[in-house]
């Protein structure tokens, strides 16, 4: 227990744990007349750093006693946030009640929004809808920002409660919703698959003179695209209504077309996005690359990536891996190695998945020595072998009669603490059976060693 000397009794506070060390340091500095009094932003950070509601309150009260220091909306907001985090809502209300007398101001919008979100996290929905009444206690009219924060909490809990709140509490009190209001409602409707109500909401917005923005449209587009080809068709028609489609719009539709393997329309939308100056995100581009490779159109996939890069888009390791896998499945592993070198030159580091794809490709192409080279290169560049690496290489070697090489890789695998799985053992056993003539010409010690290794595991 540490007591501040009586000469600074106005700063007196008891520290019961190491958690208060930072607060003690602040106090110690403030005791010195040469050190400036901390500002509200510093006190806010100090309150937020506390590990319990009591410590936050203690810090707040300590700051109240500092000479020439006055609490602000930001320090009260920090305290309210900590109290809500620990579900001390009654105490938070008491803190709000003292604000007008202590700082001469009622709580601001941000403080009430903090209360709303805290109640939402605690799923205290009945209390959330009472926040406008709490605001009115301070002779202040609830703002649209507060209403929207309440609505945002309600749609995550129950869309019907949210719609009821909008009609009774907002429209009933003459509160006109803005774009954010309608965006929240659209999100709630689409999350609950109420597509028809989503279309009605669009019409309501237009009647009220509010032009739906891209966020509102994209929310409905995304919901439509979850309903297969018919939904995607409706989404495409809806997109034509949009004044300002954005990159997210194209991400949604291209992804939907790829999911239904409609490559032609996916490429049409990709081209349209480029024409309008948009570059789809790397996740969407990767899906286009995959479907092109699956359709044996690997070179077109390469062209897509090149165009994306020229337009300033991002290409990551997942996109490159998808391209490499596509070429390897087409038994073009030698061509795929080019992309490995290319990604390294561009600072995009390959990973185990990259090399596993190449090992698979060389094994499938009947080039086991190149597969072994990739295996060795992994060690050289510091990439750890994993189960897929071992299983791919051992299976590939055994499938073409390179049983002894496969056995050596299995030894390395076991030495590294990895246990071969059922399918790998199956592959080895089938290879042994298939190569019975080869085994007849071998020293049985090799077979004994292999069987011993199997029994040990």
Report mean pLDDT, rounded to a whole number: 87
Sheet/helix structural class: mainly alpha
What's the total count of β strands? Answer: 0
Question: What is the count of helical runs?
Answer: 27
Low-confidence stretches: 1-19
Helix content: over 70%
Radius of gyration: 33 Å
Q: Strand percentage, roughly?
A: under 5%
Report what the structure shows:
The structure is a single chain. The protein is mostly helical. Among the domains are: about 55 residues, no CATH class; about 70 residues, no CATH class; about 70 residues. It is built from 27 helices and no strands.
Write the layout of secondary structure elements.
Elements: H1 21-31, H2 40-48, H3 53-64, H4 73-85, H5 89-103, H6 109-121, H7 125-128, H8 131-136, H9 144-157, H10 159-170, H11 179-191, H12 195-207, H13 214-225, H14 228-239, H15 247-259, H16 263-275, H17 282-294, H18 298-310, H19 317-329, H20 333-345, H21 352-364, H22 368-380, H23 387-399, H24 403-415, H25 422-434, H26 436-440, H27 444-456
